[in-house]
Amino acid sequence: MDTQSxxxxxxxxxxxxxxxxxxxxxLTVTDVERITPGMLRITLSGDDLADFVxxxxxxxxxxxxxxxDGTEERRDYTPRRYDAAARSLVLDxxxxxxxxxxxxxxxxxxxxxxxxxxxxxxxxxxxVERWLxxxxxxxxxxxxxxxxEASGGTRITSIAAVADPAEQQAFETKAELTCHWAYRPxxxxxxxxxxxxILRSVIIEPNxxxxxxxxxxxxxxxxxxxxxxxxxxxxxxxxxxxWVKGKADSxxxxx
Length: 255
What we know:
Layout: E1 2-4, E2 14-19, E3 24-36, E4 39-45, E5 61-66, E6 72-77, E7 79-83, E8 88-94, H1 100-107, E9 113-117, E10 121-126, E11 130-135, H2 140-149, E12 155-162, E13 176-183, H3 193-199, E14 208-215, H4 216-229, E15 237-243, E16 252-253
Parallel strand pairs: 11-12, 11-14, 12-13, 14-15
Antiparallel strand pairs: 1-2, 2-10, 3-4, 3-9, 4-8, 5-6, 5-9, 7-8, 15-16
């Protein structure tokens, strides 16, 4: 376990990086639900989940499906919900592209099997009472989980880019929540304009932890706005490029 914090500022966020035993799990589909036109929710179960651990809302598991050439296709997905006691795991699939994992999800039916690896580790953020969550469809599982797992007294503002109002999601939470939805067509998912337009109108109070995940160039633009235009401190930002336009199975880290 690695702990990152600032000894000079007791109000600084604390990030603990916890490693998990990496193992492959064979799971079975128990439910498939289309929660919005562009988001599919699949529930998996199996005895292999008895020791499943996911300590942070933005953890990733590796989805593994057979490829046509006999190898495996692998992609990262966020555990939207999990219950180790019930041995169930929920994954949300944004249907924004027709890659092999998306195709598997669109064809999935109860009784189908899926191999899942991980999570490899968790970055647990604590000592934070205010959050600003910014992302696109691929980030909504992590954003939703963060919102729903938040304790009372936490204040959360979210800004999510989706195709249209039909893609909005509702979240149950004990936190004080303000949701903003930025609409733009999917073919403009690598354009940060819609998110930035809303972000520029949002007041970011001191000691707000800003979490950003979207297409890499979008994340880069938002991070630049925060640090260069608004002078927001890097230690209060966690930014990731969850996908890279034109590149399969690619991510970028910015912190």
